[in-house]
Specification:
Layout: H1 2-13, H2 32-43, H3 54-68, H4 73-84, H5 93-105
Helix pairs in contact: 2-4, 3-4, 3-5, 4-5
């Protein structure tokens, strides 16, 4: 116990601030393997269809890129564009960026889909959006 108190006093004296890993503070280059996994994952999610939950589905894809794979907005945007290009009714660049920015504001663990073989036993829908699904 004394060691913990000594460590806490040292940290306080050095003005060390705890950090949280829920939101990235700097952009770390994503490996080609991470980008490839993210690309394959969102391809399997299917298209967003206007009038049938298209907005929510598109936001879900944004959350998978940002939260599930831990990508930054800039890293996720090319993959999000690729997915968008498969849709009959495409989102604008501004709308796509807005969805990624909103996903980036969500609390939660980043990169959780990278920690397993790809199976996610948790819900992948942010809590605030679950009522819409």
């Amino acid at each position: 116990m004394e060691s913990l108190e000594k460590l806490a006093a040292t940290a306080k004296a050095a003005d060390v601030k705890p950090t949280t890993l829920t939101q990235p503070t700097s952009q770390v280059p994503a490996s080609e393997s991470v980008l490839g996994r993210a690309r394959a994952y969102i391809r399997k999610m299917g298209p967003a269809v206007s009038g049938h939950g298209g907005h929510n589905h598109t936001y879900h894809v944004a959350c998978i890129l940002i939260l599930g794979f831990g990508l930054s907005i800039d890293q996720a945007m090319p993959l999000f564009r690729e997915w968008n290009n498969t849709l009959d009714e495409k989102w604008t660049e501004r709308e796509l960026r807005h969805k990624l920015e909103d996903a980036n504001k969500e609390d939660g663990e980043r990169g959780y889909l990278l920690k397993s073989s790809g199976k996610d036993e948790r819900t992948m829908i942010p809590f605030a959006w679950q009522e819409y699904f």
